[in-house]
Amino acid sequence: RRARDLPPPRASSDDDAPSAAPAEPARADPADNVPSKAKGLGKGVNLFDPAATASRFITRRFGFTGGLVFVGLLASVEGREIVGALLERDSEGSGETVATPSGLTYADARVGGGVAAKKGDFVGVHLLIEDLETGVVYLDTKANKKPIAFIFQKKPLLAPVCDGLEEAVSSMRRGGVRDVTMPARLAYGAAGAALANGLVVPPNRDIKMRVSIEDISPSYL
User: Fold this and answer.
1) Which intervals of the chain are annotated as region Disordered (predicted)?
2) What residue spans define the domains of the chain?
């Protein structure tokens, strides 16, 4: 074709520009999923091993050399704990119901072969919390694979931790599984409790709770 027969060049417009890639949806901050008692530990901290927090604290306080000394001591301690954990043997619970003076009752489905919790230890548990009367499930941490971590016998207690849970844990060992029944005064009392999953335990509800101790770690501070 001759040049005069060619169509004139078309002016470019915004419609011709390559379309921009769709924006990624906003991601939730992982810290939002951390139990409220552990938010002060900072992002990225393994809730079942407070050594990272302790190491950062010592490094800030005593410098890099102090941090290295801590790591060396920790390695020897952790080595012993790892060997001990490998030798732990859980056993089947008797299923016998035990009543305590406080009004708590429990039956062991599995007796843990690990260490017992001491005041100040970090305890990691899976919880199944149900209403004793209605059977409504308020929390099941195994379903969402998000165990609860808390500092044993540290006040104030923040839900889902309660007096009944701490009493149950006090006579358990790592690896143990216990079915616990507690009156409202040992659970969430007249105030009830708002849980992290958005559900609310109403006031004055007797509670059934299955407690599985996943880990017990000593406090290094």
Assistant:
1) 1-40
2) 54-87, 92-218
Tell me the β-bridge partners of 130: 137, 208
Q: Give phi and psi for 102, each to the nearest 5.
A: -75, -15
Cβ burial, residue 117 (10 Å; 0-12/13-18/19+): buried
Q: Give the tens place of pLDDT for each residue, 73-131.
A: 555 555 555 545 555 676 787 889 999 999 999 999 999 888 999 999 999 999 999 99
Quick one: CATH architecture of 92-218? Roll (3.10)
Give residue-wise pLDDT tens across range 76-86.
555 555 545 55
Q: What is the dihedral of CA 112, 117, 121, 125, to 10 degrees?
A: 40
Between CA 87 and CA 100 the distance in angstroms is 31
CA distance 43 to 34: 9
